[in-house]
Every structure is written in structure tokens, then in C-alpha cells.
Amino acid sequence: MVSEGGIARLVRLIDTERARQGLSGRELSARASLGVATVSNVLSGQSSPELETIEALAGALGYSMETFLAMALRASRRQADTELIADIVDKLPEADRKAILSLATYYRDLQSSGR
Question: Domain spanning 6-71: which CATH class is it, in words?
Fold first, then answer.
């Protein structure tokens, strides 16, 4: 089983990017020249991938290893920032939490409308 940490974050990013590109595990394994069982075990967290496996999967998704690791680092930093903000917000009074949620929702909707 893959423990939570750097490798687990890379595996999640691989799976997220695989889904974003609309690829099945079988298609990803073919692109990466890896066995279907190998890719399935990696994506399900049943086995911890070797660096060469991660590199093959990143390449199959159209990324160099350097670009892929940079993406994972950015995602990791965003996650840490999100957890810090959530910890702070959780300690606020209920009315303040609702106000912050309303502002966040408004801002998200504003961004998605293109204004």
C-alpha cells in the first residue's frame, strides 16, 4: 500500500491527469508501455511505483519528468495552503465562517462568468 506522501501525491496527479485526458487505465498502460496490472496497482495504491514507472506514466500523459514534478509540487503547496486556511476558518465564529464562504462563492462565480 502506498503511504501518504510524495509518491502518493504523484500517483494522485497521474490519475487526475489520466481522467482529465479521458484515458482509461488500459490506454495509459499502452501509452506508457507498461502492463495493465502494473498501472492498475499503481493507480489503486496497491504498489509503490519505481521512479522509472512514474517517468513512463508522465511521458504517456505528455509531460517531461521535470514538468510533472513541478506540477506535483505546485499541487502540494496549494494543498498545504488550503489546509492552513481551513484550520484558521474552522476556529472562527459561525457567522464569520458563513461570511467567508459567501465571499468565496461570489468570487468563484464571478471568475467562472468571465467578468
Answer: mainly alpha
